[in-house]
Amino acid sequence: MAVRACGLIIYRRLQPPPSSKVTDSIEYLLLQTSYGTHHWTPPKGHVDPGEDDLQTAFRETQEEAGLQANQLTLIEGYKKELHYPVHGKPKTVVYWLAEMKDCNTEIKLSEEHQAFQWLKLEDACKFAEYEEMQAMLKEVHQFLCSRE
């Protein structure tokens, strides 16, 4: 059976300079794992028994980044499933999109991560080594741009 995990792609909007596009002020939160290859990823984790997917996404975000559900706005209309093998077993990760209500809210990492970065799309794609993750970040950005 496939391993199932859920998480949130979290973004914040900085105050853009008057001459720039609104979408230029968007930054994405990526966390660097403190294990394995120290890869960068949005907060996510395995579904616990009795939990639904969205509950898992919010719980993992709170555990890994210290962000409470009431500090985020869930963005309607975006949900993405990624499928890839991990150690030879299939894995499914479901992501939702959430905006920080206050872009200055402090991130508090758990021991699972050693660093975090707020990154513009281009840099976020460089940090996220996996093609599926890069494609999803670009898709999210297009989704946000289309809502302007």
From TrEMBL:
InterPro entries per UniProt: NUDIX_hydrolase-like_dom_sf, NUDIX_hydrolase_CS, NUDIX_hydrolase_dom, Nudix_hydrolase_domain, Tetra_PHTase
Q: Where are the transmembrane segments?
A: none
Q: Which reaction does it catalyse?
A: a 5'-end FAD-phospho-ribonucleoside in mRNA + H2O = a 5'-end phospho-adenosine-phospho-ribonucleoside in mRNA + FMN + 2 H(+); P(1),P(4)-bis(5'-guanosyl) tetraphosphate + H2O = GMP + GTP + 2 H(+); a 5'-end CoA-ribonucleoside in mRNA + H2O = a 5'-end phospho-adenosine-phospho-ribonucleoside in mRNA + (R)-4'-phosphopantetheine + 2 H(+)
Taking every annotated instance into account, which residue ranges of this chain make up the domain Nudix hydrolase?
1-141
User: Record keywords: Nucleotide-binding included?
Assistant: yes
Q: Which GO terms describe its biological process?
A: AMP biosynthetic process; ATP biosynthetic process
**Care to name a GO molecular-function term for this sequence?**
nucleotide binding
Superkingdom of this entry's organism?
Eukaryota
Q: What class of enzyme is it?
A: hydrolase
Q: Which UniProt keywords apply?
A: Hydrolase, Nucleotide-binding
**A Pfam match:** NUDIX
Give the EC number(s) under which this enzyme is classified.
3.6.1.17
Q: List the cofactors.
A: a divalent metal cation
Main role?
A: Catalyzes the asymmetric hydrolysis of diadenosine 5',5'''-P1,P4-tetraphosphate (Ap4A) to yield AMP and ATP. Exhibits decapping activity towards FAD-capped RNAs and dpCoA-capped RNAs in vitro.
Concerning its family, UniProt says: Belongs to the Nudix hydrolase family.
Which PANTHER family does this one have? BIS(5'-NUCLEOSYL)-TETRAPHOSPHATASE [ASYMMETRICAL], DIADENOSINE 5,5-P1,P4-TETRAPHOSPHATE PYROPHOSPHOHYDROLASE MUTT
Annotated protein name in UniProt = Bis(5'-nucleosyl)-tetraphosphatase [asymmetrical]
Q: Which organism is it from?
A: Urocynchramus pylzowi
